[in-house]
Structure formats: structure tokens, C-alpha cells
Amino acid sequence: MSAATAAGPAPFDVFLRTGFTSAPGGQDLGRRLGALADGETRSFRLSDSFAELWPEVRRGRSPFVLFADQAVEVAESDLRRLGRLLRNHPGIPALTLSSPASGRVYGDPAAGIPARWVPQRLAPTSRLPSWFCVLNREVLADRVVPDGELRSLEFFLLDLGRQLAAAGSPPLRMSPTGLALDTRRWAGDLLSQAADHLASDYHRYRSRHGEAAVPPQLRVEIQGEWIPHPGLLGLRETALEPPRISILCPVFKPEFLAEMLGSVLQQSWRNWELLILVDGPPEEDERRILEILSRVASEPRIRVRRWRNRGTGPSRQALAEDASGDFLLAIDDDDLLPAHALEVFASAVRRHPGARCFRGGTRLVGLVDQYLRPRRRLIVNGISSDPFEVSQPFLISRETLAELGGFEGDPALRNAGEDTDLFHKLDQARVRTLIIDEPLYFRRLGHGNLSLSFEHGEVLDHFRNLERRFCPPGWRVVDRQNELEGGFQHALVAYRPGDEGPEVVTATRFFQYKTLGEESLAAIDLEITSVCNAVCSFCPREAMPDKSSFMPISVVQSLADQLAREPRQRQVVLCGIGESTLHPQLTTFVELLSRAGARVCMTTNGSRMSPELFCRLVDCGLKEINFSLNAATAETHLRVMRLRDFAAIKRNVLEILELKHRRFPHLKVHVSFVLCNLNQEEVHGFVDEWRRLPVSQIWIHPVNNRAGLLSQDVSPVDLGPIAREFEGDERVAVDIFRHHPEHGNVCRIVQSLDFISVEGNVRLCAMDYERKTSYGNIKENLLRHLYLEKILSYRRGETLSLCQGCDFFPGAVADAR
């Protein structure tokens, strides 16, 4: 017999709220509460309206009602203590468990325990947190929840706690407690699933009791109203019928400009003007742009200006100042408008004359084909919850834009970000915005998109600038949390006034373009030859269709030309499946790539790496070298790699280490060991020997199954004991790929390495021994374009037959597909 049963069941009905992304209590909390309770147990979802649940709450017969969230964890001892307390004190009006979570959300201090309170564990409070509280049914008997009011449990309890405190019977809180709750995740779930209910209750409650009566986290407003499709006005041929729409388009790229122009010219709504500002592109691109624009020179509704490059923010602002339309619509030079887009917006303007801003949905085209539904924006305690990506299109009154200060780009984001800045202004001014859930804009996601080129630091600086401009005075960011789900990012940001006080958490979900990849962070695995003088037991070279080729210098020159134009230094590793020292132009390749700004590294088996060749390579720009030895003795080295004269290879490495010490102190020299069943007995001897020498690092790799092609004579061994043994040891790196990111369920090798095979083709990775994949040759294509093609092919599942048998393949990808 359990302790709870021996003492008698607790006198309450249980209402368990579900639907949280973080649920440490999970179903176990519901089970434990149900086993403890004398009454019924009912689950309801976070998105359910409390007004609809209220009749069931009133109907129960148990003396108490307990509300608990699945996101909370409560110690078993506290649940038993709670049951005893309620049985022994049936007159308690309301009760909750004290925890730090209450202070973080409501600002309540830690519970004091006045000596006059019995049983020395209770203290008064005016707050009843929805995640865990008990209500006396007699207290609920006279409560009324009118239809449509108090749709959230949060505001029902807020109001109840206020009334009980005013009547001299305040709720109590029990302390100490083992209650645990991640309030930031909890608040994010609340906003994502119950924002409608919170906003409705906040509007009513604030009007009756004032702003100060509401905790900051519950001050939720929604910016944007859904409206049905407004229909079409049927005035397609009447060019002067209002409203007149000015389309603003900064132009920097020529590739899809003609298609953009064609989409505007085919609009069924004829009362428009297209204002174009050529924003100082490179000379060749500008020549092409002007040639395309010359084809529409006879169209009086299209006006063109040119200036030196200043970015999209200043360009859109200049165009807005020149506009004559009643409403303005922004478009990018590579995007498209559906033929009826302007007519739908014009119809909405005519049917809703009081609205000053309208938004529609976006369909991604090009690299991705996906509909992005427009999002309503949340404002929490005056803080915009949607800090970044805003799906186009938006139509805004020209007068309203001017009143808000126009388009303002952010210098931290290359003078872009003017759309996010504008929507923060709309939030602050509470401008009425109507939303049409229909694709009224085709956004081309191509290789040249600015969205794909922003660096992480630039985006963070843009966030900080928005926060400085639009946060309430004294509030600052104390935490950011980001999680990827497919191509979408969930973002939580926590704010606090100064060092103390209740937090405010904002939450949003938006399409994360960066899941398509950031090629400037990927190292380049360059296979300058497919020839190798070793026959490593863990390398299935027999599967390769070509084992005797050398990369032509024209391929390396093309790569160098591209790298010279990169904004950041790229790492190029001469490796692939061949032995780079066999290429007769090795030093020339290193010099070409180094002069282009690349950090050139290489991996070699060391058999041909003499001290003389090493010095020539360093003089040409080599920055890092790894010797793949894979053994501590000559016998094992011969068995694993089929290479003779291990002693000569070691002598060369030792001489090179001496040269590094004397002449090249900043050069990195590593030794590596691919751990498998054939050499596992020598791994400690290998580490002990090379640790005494001035190598930069000792790399221990787990043997990979080579996408299923690994010989049956070779098998992996458990790397766990080795990893634990050398954890924190800066000289010994165990599995150097272990910490590489897997953004959007993309394999960390595919994400982190650009593999270029001997003929210049970008392939999925070096594990593609049979050369089944190819995304184009770098002599005819930009590497960043081919990288995106590779990532998208992977995300579409086109490489699944190759990848699913590989050790590096993330299992989550199979589920996502």
C-alpha cells in the first residue's frame, strides 16, 4: 500500500494542461496526480479557451480543483504533503507551490515563512500561477465567466487572486518545494499557442484594473487582423481608379530583372507606377541592367534613377520620397508579383478604408518551392516579438510611412533591414494592419540572395540595434534561444529591466534561410589527384571509377579566382582520396591558392614529404599539415596502410618538426590515427610517443564505414573510453568532426566541407567513392552556387540512397523526409 493510499486520497479534481514543447513532468505528472486525487482527471490543451472549460470546472464534486501544466516537474514528497495539507485544512481558499519560477514571471519575492502561520509552511500571496495551483470549490461557486471573457487560465487566476486578497482571504503558497519549470520555454509555448486568448483578456483586464495590475509577461497584444479574400473590383481597365499604387524597386542584379518587369506589366490592376533606382552595381552588371530597362523605356508608368551604391534601405527611402501613389509596395529586383496581386490589394483598400497597412503571403520560388503564410506580430510589454524576417509583400499608405520616418536601413546590416525596422515602427504606433492569407508575392530564393549572405555577427548587431531603438527604457536582453525545425527557426528572447524584476519572453517562428547553408564557413576538400601510393585497409579505392588522374591547373586557377573575391578567408585542405604529394604541380597549386587569400592545409601519408619539399611548400604559403600515420609500429603501419619504410617516414616527420621549431613556429603540424580493430592496441603508444614531440595536435579519428563500402576485415571500435580519457586535453583531439554543426538536419560533413574531386566537380562529399553525385564544375560555376545546390539536393532526399548507409548520416533527417 502506497503512502498516499494509506493517508487517504487527496480531495481534488485534476485539470492537466498539455501541448508544451518542454514537458519534464509529461504524462508521468498526470499519472501521479491522478493516483493521488479523489476526483476526476481531465486533460486540456494549451490552445483551448478557458471559457469553454469553465462549465466542467464548475461541475466537479471534489472540494478542490488542481490546475497543473505538463511543463512543470513536482517532487513526489511535495505532492504527498499537498494532499495531507488539503485534507487537514479544507478551508484553504487557494494554494500554490512557491518556486523561483514565480519570481521570474510575476516578480514575487521568495516566500517568507511568518511564525504565526500554521503549519509553518504557508505564506500569503496574491498570485496564482497557472502552471500549478489548487482552488477551493467554494471560492469558485460564485464566480461567473461570461461568454467570450477570460479566455485564458492566466487571467482567470490573476483576477481570482486579486479578489481573494481584497476580501482578506489571500491565496497561500507552500514552501519549500521541489517544483521546477523552464519559464522561458513555458512562456514561448504560451505565446505560440494561446496568444489570441491572452491578448483578448489583456485588453479587457487592463481597461478595468489598469496596466500595473498585469504582469509584464501577460501584456500581450496582436498586430494584424486576418481578413477574408477581398475579391476583385472588376475595374481592370480603369487606369485612374483609386488607389494608385507606387511599386518601389532598388536594382542591383540583372539576372531576373526582365521577369520582374514582366510581372508588373501584366498586372490586372492598371493604376500603378514602378519606380526603379539602379543602386550602383558592378560596371558589367549595370550595363546589362540598363540594356534590360531600355526595353521598357516607352512605358510612362516606369521611372528610372541611378546613383552610387548605398544599399536597399537608402534606396527604398529615396524611391518613397519620389512616389506619387496613395499606397506603396516594395519589390526586389529578382522577385515577381502574381498577375492579380495589385488588384487584390486595391480591393482590400476599397473595402477597408480605415486600414493603413496590408500584408499578404509569400511563395518561395527558385531554390525552394514553399508557401510562407503571413504571420501576425505579437507585442509583449511593448516589445515586438518578431525581430527579423518579415514575409513580403506589404502595402502601406504613403502618408503613414512618412509619419513613421520612412525606410531606415541599418548600417550594421549593409544598410538593409529596412523592412524589419518599419514593422517595429508599425508595432510601436499600433497601426492597423490587415492580413490576407494568399500568395501575393513570389520571392525568388537564388544564389545571389542577400538573405543568404548575411553573417551571424551582422544579424546579431541588427538585433541589438532594433532592441536599442524599440525596447522600453531600462529593458535589456538576458538570454536568446534558437532551435531549428526543418527550415524554420524558433526564437526565444528573454528581457529584464535592469538586474532584477520579472522577465519578459518573446517568441517567434520564421523561415530560416541560413538552413540552406553558409558556404563561407565550409572548408574546401580539394582532391588534386586520385592517385595514391598507399592501400589503406579502411579506404575502398577499388570502388572509384578513376584512380589515375591529376587535377589540371585550370581548375585550381578557377578556384583561386573565386576565392580572391571572397569577403572572408576560406580554408582549402589538399586531401580527397589521393596522395597530394604525387602531383607534379603541388607547389604551384599551394602558391596560387595562398595568393588568392586561402588558408592552405594538407593531409599526407608522409612517404614523399621530405624536409626539402616541406620548406618549399611553406615558402609558397602552406599553413598547416597533417601526417596520417595510423600506427605506432612498422608492422602495424604496413598492415593498415600497405606502405613500407615506416622508419624513413618518421625520420622525415621528426626533421620537419625540428624545422617548425627553428624556422616556422606559427605553422601547425599534426599527426593522426584512424582507430579501428587493426590498430586499436597501439593508440595509447601512438599518443605517448608523439605527445613528447612538438606536434601541434594528435588527432584520433573513428574509422568511418565509407557509406557502406568499408571492407569486412575492418571494423570500428568504441571511441567512448578514448574520448573520456582525453577530454579537456588540448593536445589530443578525439573525433575532430564531432562538434561540427548539423543545421536543419544536414549532415555535418556535407555542411562543413566542400568536396571538389579531381576533375573540378563539386560532389556531396569524399565518401562518394563511386562518384554518383555531381553539382557542377567550378570552372563554369561559382562554388557558392554549387554548395547551395548540394545542400538543397540533400534536403530534398536525393542523396538518401548514398547517405543512409553512412556513419555520418543524422538519423533525424530520415524522419524529416
Task: Describe what you observe in this structure.
By secondary structure, the chain is α/β, with parallel strands linked by helices. The chain is 33% helix and 21% strand. The protein has 27 helices and 31 strands. The strands form five sheets. Strands 9, 10, 11, 12, 13, 14, 15, 18 and 19 form a nine-stranded mixed sheet that branches. Helix 18 packs parallel to helix 19. It starts with a helix and ends with a helix.
Short synopsis of the structure:
The chain has 817 residues and is α/β, with parallel strands linked by helices.
List keywords for this structure.
817 residues, alpha/beta, 9-stranded mixed sheet, 27 helices, 21% strand, flat, disordered C terminus
**Weakly predicted, low-confidence segments:** 1-6, 111-120, 739-744, 812-817
| Biggest beta sheet attributes | 9 strands, mixed
- Total of helices: 27
Q: What does the average pLDDT come to?
A: 88
Task: Categorize the overall geometry.
Answer: flat
**N→C terminal distance:** 48 Å
- Percent range for helical residues? 25-40%
List the helices and strands and how they pair.
Blueprint: H1 3-7, E1 12-18, H2 26-36, E2 41-45, H3 50-59, E3 64-69, H4 76-88, E4 94-97, H5 100-106, E5 122-124, E6 132-136, H6 137-140, H7 153-166, E7 172-174, H8 183-209, E8 220-223, E9 225-227, E10 245-251, H9 257-265, E11 272-279, H10 283-294, E12 302-307, H11 312-322, E13 327-330, H12 341-351, E14 357-366, E15 370-372, E16 377-380, E17 383-384, E18 394-397, H13 398-403, H14 418-429, E19 433-445, H15 450-453, H16 456-470, E20 475-485, E21 488-497, E22 504-511, E23 523-526, H17 553-564, E24 571-574, H18 586-595, E25 599-604, H19 611-620, E26 622-628, H20 634-641, H21 646-662, E27 668-675, H22 683-691, E28 697-702, H23 720-725, E29 732-734, H24 748-752, E30 753-756, E31 762-763, H25 783-795, H26 800-803, H27 811-816
Parallel strand pairs: 1-2, 1-3, 4-7, 9-19, 10-11, 10-13, 11-12, 14-19, 23-24, 23-30, 24-25, 25-26, 26-27, 27-28, 28-29
Antiparallel strand pairs: 3-6, 4-6, 5-7, 8-16, 13-18, 14-15, 14-18, 16-17, 20-21, 21-22, 30-31
Helix pairs in contact: 17-18, 18-19
